[in-house]
Design a protein that fits this description.
128 residues; mainly alpha
Length: 128
Amino acid sequence: MNKKITSLIVMTALMAPGMGCWADDTNATGNNNSPLAHPVNAYTNHEVKEDMKDSQEHSQKAAEAEAAYKQAKAEYEDSLKANGADSQITKEAKSRMKKAHHAMNKHNKKTAESNKELQKHEAQAQNQ
C-alpha cells in the first residue's frame, strides 16, 4: 500500500511540470493566435476565417443560380416547343434564361475570386 501511494505522489510530481507545456497558444495553422502577442498572425487567421465564410456563401449562391438557370432553360425549351420562337412567352422565357445565366456566371466568378483569396491568405498563415 505504501508503494502505491509513493508511486502516485512521484507520478504527479513528475507530471505537473510537463502539463504546463502541454497546451500552447497555436492554432490549426501552427502559429500563435494571440492578438496582443502576435497581431499579424491574429489578423491573418481572421482573414482566413472570413475568406472561408465568403467562399461558402458564394458557392451556395452559385449553386442556387445554377439551379435557377437550369429551370429557366427548361422553361424556355418547353415554351419554344409549345409556342414557337416568335411567341411573346418564349421571348420572356429566353430573357429570364439569359438573366439567370448572367447571375450564374457572376456568382461563379465571385466564388473563384474568394477561393483565390482564401488560398493566398492560407499560404500567408502557413508561412508565419
